[in-house]
Structure formats: structure tokens, C-alpha cells
Write a structure and sequence with these properties.
The chain is α+β, with helices and mostly antiparallel strands. Among the domains are: 175-231; 235-383, no CATH class. 16% of the residues lie in helices and 35% in strands. Strands 14, 15, 16, 18, 19 and 23 form a six-stranded antiparallel beta sheet that branches. Strand 3 and strand 4 (100-102) form a beta hairpin. It is elongated and about 135 Å long.
Length: 385
């Protein structure tokens, strides 16, 4: 029997089918390769973000402990090479008295990245990554972006749908920090100078806030990281010292200098609300009369002056308080200056309360009336005798 071979048409059909299959296979292979490159680029971008901001899941006792380049420097790198080359960046320095440090403490790379360090600033398509620290508002989420790293994707063109990126949002990098300064009885202490110490562009920087009458303080836009607070509390109320004597006509309390420096006072203003109004005649400090005005007697809210009185400071050093700042909000546990140092204690007495300003009326009982005393150094104490 004769065997019939392929005709020219058969060959053409076979070649056409083979070409179609081969073309489809090539397309599939290219798609698979590009998908793998995209996946690896995304992984690389995410690793770089962790290098900059630290590891959010690196926890100890429920607190983040790793804050990366940003936590040490207090700012984003000016270029990606700053993550592994110190260059002219300030080298990390720790200040024991402030319990805080700042500066480059790199290289900020996981060991598995080091071997690819020459390609750190490239994506897996072999192209240079685009890095920007120009802030802008991301319209999709309405949040400010402080910086971003971009891969131009497989087509190598900016602004197209295959671009890949990681963003550094403000609320990922910075935090509002707040807390209370309280006396040993748990009452807020006003007019305390609270200084926060944190890095800014690799240099340890300090900013000051003053507590309000409730002892509350706050700071905005503090970079995430391990920082500290320093206090200059000055005068505070001695625990349980607010009381009345002589049927409520004398209000007595004691103040403590918790600063490491001496504090001098030469005036104060007592504010109290009572109906009918009450007025006082004398003030004694440390057992000595420093002010006496029988007519007109002193009204609530009036400032009186007296010879300067100096209270020595607490011995030793008032230690800084370490804090761990996590974005976007950090609430610092209450701080009690009594536990950080103690100087001289002195008693203050506001005497002879009367219900008329010329002193011709009857005695005024001040028991249970809230008082706010502001001293000339800015210290404020509040109590209810």
C-alpha cells in the first residue's frame, strides 16, 4: 500500500498552528516573568519601607521597639543610599542625662538584603527606583504623604497603571504626644515646663510645652521612636497639706520645690470663688509674716507682693523620663515629680478672712472652697481645704 505524505497545505496548516501555539506560549511566559518581577519588586519596596520606618510587629511588652532610620534620624533619608552609607550624616550619639539619642546608626538593612546592596535602588525590571520626599495629599485617602518610592513597572513609563510604589504617610511617621503631670495625690500640676527630646535630621532637638491648670501638656508632629521628656516642675503642693484653721478663717498649705534649682518667689495671686465674697488681711510664709493690709483687705484674684523668699532645689539630678512614641497618637503615663526629686518644703498661710473688704464684717469660713494659687515664678497649686 502506498503511504500518502503531507501536502503543502498540510504543512502550512501545521506551521500556522505551531506558530499560534508558540506565540501564545511566549506571551504566557512573558506574563509569568513580568508577574514574578512585579511580585519581587513589591516585596523589595515593602522591605525598604520597613528599613526606613522600622518593624511595626517588632514588639516587647506590647510596644513597638524598632523604628528604623526614621526613629534614629527624625526624618526621611534624602536618598536611598543614606540607608546603608553614613556619608555626611551625623553619627548616632546617646545623651545619658536626657535618656535619648539621635543620629545615623546603620546600616539599616536586613542581612538578606546586604548581598544585593548594589541593586538596592533598582526594581526587579532592572530600572532605577524613583524616590521623592516632596509632600502631597493622597486624594484617594485624604492623607498627607511625606515621601514615596516608585517603580515604573514593566513599561518603564511614569504615571501608567503598572507603576508600583510604597508611601510614607504622615500618620505613619509622626505622632501627637500628650500626658499629665500630677502631684502625689493625683491632682494635675499647672505651669510645669515639659521638654521633649527627639531627633530632627540626625540632631537631638528639644521643644517645650507648659502644663495647663490640670497638669496637661501636648506636643504635635513628634517623630516615632524612643525619646524622652525632661521636667522643670518648680513648686508643687505638698501632699495633703491644704487645710483651714481658726474656724476656717485661715487657709494653710505647704509647697515643695521639686526643681534641681533654687526657686525664688516674691508675689502670688489667690483665686477662690465664694458667695458672699471674702477678703483676707495677712500672709505668712515659713512662720514669718510677709504681708499685712487690714484696709482694704485683699480680694480674690488680686496679686500681692512680699520680700523675696528662696526655696533650695532638690539634691542630685532630676532624671529625664524615657518615652516610646508611636504614630499617630501617644498617651504618656502620668508623671509624678515627687518621685523624681524633692527640695525644701515651706508652709504658706493666708490669714483673717472676712466678709467685708474693710474688715468691719464677720469672719468668713473658707473650709471646702477651691483655691488656685499662682506664684511669681509661674508655679500654680490648686487645692480645696
Amino acid at each position: 500500500m502506498r503511504q500518502r505524505g503531507f501536502t503543502l497545505i498540510d504543512v502550512i496548516i501545521i506551521l500556522a498552528v505551531t506558530g499560534i501555539l508558540a506565540s501564545g506560549m511566549v506571551t504566557f511566559v512573558f506574563q509569568a516573568v513580568n508577574k514574578e518581577r512585579e511580585d519581587k519588586t513589591i516585596e523589595h519596596l515593602n522591605r525598604l519601607k520597613v528599613v526606613v520606618t522600622g518593624k511595626p510587629l517588632s514588639m516587647r511588652h506590647g510596644e513597638q521597639t524598632s523604628f528604623g532610620y526614621f526613629g534614629d534620624m527624625g526624618g526621611l533619608p534624602s536618598q536611598l543610599a543614606d540607608l546603608y552609607v553614613s556619608g555626611t550624616q551625623p553619627i548616632y550619639t546617646f545623651f545619658p542625662s536626657l535618656k535619648a539619642g539621635a543620629g545615623w546608626n546603620g546600616p539599616y538593612l536586613d542581612p538578606e538584603i546586604v548581598e544585593y546592596i548594589t541593586n538596592l535602588d533598582k526594581d526587579c525590571f532592572g530600572r532605577d527606583l524613583q524616590y521623592s520626599t516632596t509632600p502631597f495629599v493622597d486624594a484617594t485617602v485624604g492623607e498627607t504623604v511625606e515621601g514615596m518610592i516608585i517603580s515604573l513597572g514593566k513599561d518603564g513609563k511614569p504615571g501608567t497603571g503598572d507603576d508600583l510604589s510604597v508611601e510614607f504617610f504622615t500618620n505613619e511617621l509622626y505622632s501627637s504626644v500628650s500626658g499629665f503631670i500630677k502631684d502625689i495625690d493625683g491632682k494635675g500640676i499647672g505651669s510645669v515646663t515639659v521638654t521633649i527630646n527627639y531627633p530632627s535630621n540626625g540632631t537631638l532637638t528639644s521643644f517645650i510645652a507648659i502644663t495647663d491648670a490640670d497638669g496637661f501638656y501636648s506636643f504635635n508632629r513628634v517623630p516615632s521612636g524612643n525619646h524622652s521628656l525632661s521636667l522643670t516642675p518648680g513648686l508643687i503642693l505638698a501632699s495633703g497639706s491644704g487645710r483651714t484653721l481658726e474656724n476656717g478663717t485661715i487657709v494653710a498649705f505647704s509647697i515643695v520645690n521639686t526643681s534641681t534649682n533654687s526657686v525664688t518667689i516674691s508675689a502670688f495671686r489667690a483665686i477662690y470663688n465664694v458667695n458672699p465674697p471674702a477678703f483676707y488681711q495677712r500672709v505668712s510664709i515659713g512662720g514669718a509674716s510677709v504681708f499685712n493690709r487690714p484696709n482694704p483687705m485683699v480680694a480674690s484674684g488680686e496679686t500681692i507682693s512680699f520680700p523675696p523668699i528662696t526655696l533650695p532645689g532638690a539634691p542630685g539630678t532630676l532624671e529625664a523620663v524615657p518615652i516610646r512614641v508611636r504614630s499617630p497618637v501617644t498617651e504618656v503615663p502620668d508623671i509624678f515629680p515627687n518621685n523624681l526629686g524633692r527640695g525644701q518644703t515651706i508652709e504658706v498661710r493666708i490669714e483673717h478672712f472676712n466678709n467685708t473688704q474693710n474688715g468691719s464684717g464677720g469672719d468668713a469660713n473658707m473650709r471646702g472652697i477651691p483655691f488656685e494659687i499662682t506664684f511669681s515664678d509661674g508655679s500654680i497649686v490648686t487645692f480645696t481645704p
